[in-house]
């Protein structure tokens, strides 16, 4: 039984990818989820963390899996997709596949973002989250986004790119950029019309879950 390591997003948690991790378990894959350093606690915890700590916590989880597994499937959501990309390069021979969900190659800036909200509740939710995120943590996220541009041209692992066309946090052109930049010959793009940023929780999630499963199964053959 192969294992999948799931990496959640910036200021998020395991809930972001829980439908997919549970689905993979139901289809005979081991799912490993965890919480990135500085996440899941207080604002102070996030303030005291940085991108290197986020990356190290993911690498520690991967190293633990590789103690008993020959190769592992990496699945990253949002910022987790950036971290997964970097790990796929450094552990290339040990990574069977790479799935990038809502990868923030080109994040929408706050001014652009405010224009995308269609109702007051969405605006309130965003302002609440934005106000509780330390400025230092946001800068660390932005640095990770910039540094990842050097990573994408090095990815040789079979890669699935999933992007919602209604994503209010990431520009759709992110998926096309990854498709053009990642050099592996085994890559696939799934654009989901009925999805925003949270692709694992959207109305079309069943199709996404099955597409991810099929892609991973194909790399196992």
From TrEMBL:
Start and end residues of each AB hydrolase-1 domain: 5-199
Pfam families: Abhydrolase_6
Stretches assigned to coiled coil: none
CC terms in the record's Gene Ontology section: membrane
Keyword terms, alphabetized: Hydrolase
Active site: 78, 167, 197
Span of the signal peptide: none
UniProt superkingdom: Bacteria
Protein name listed in UniProt: AB hydrolase-1 domain-containing protein
